[in-house]
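ok here's Transcriptional regulator, BadM/Rrf2 family, seq below lol
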Amino acid sequence: MQISKGVEWAVHAAALLNGLPAGRGLKAEALARYHGVPAPYMAKQMQALSKAGITRSSRGAHGGYRLARPADQISLWDITAAVDGKGPAFRCTEIRQNGPCGLKPKDCKKACQIAAAFAAAERAFRESLAVISLADIAGQVVDDASPEHLTAIMQWLGKEAEPLSDSQS
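and the structure came out like this:
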């Protein structure tokens, strides 16, 4: 299973949004600059998070993104599903019905053992991401960061965070 880099970028962006003071937001361009990634691609991830209800955006000169709900109510699975979709990673094509010894469709009433194994693995993967919250990640970042780095982050946020207007999308 390959997770897109968009998921990585979205989790990093959401973790940074978690540190914003109330009533402030960050533009997608600022998030892209902070992480050193292309602005159009970061904007795409932020739109996906907004569409999923993970972030809220305010438009206009004093616009930007902020979390739509508390970080402890946003899981890594929520972000992964918002960016990469909720569809299964493994899609069985019933290859067991092909070739000279292929099974007849009437003999394939049960899911193939291979498809069942991948489905079980994917359930475990999703469940493991669903129990890790954005607050857990943010807490680990704070615990692992030096005081100097945390100060630098807070100073950057103080300079870049915009007061939000009332217009939301």
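fwiw The two ends are 33 Å apart (CA to CA). kinda neat tbh
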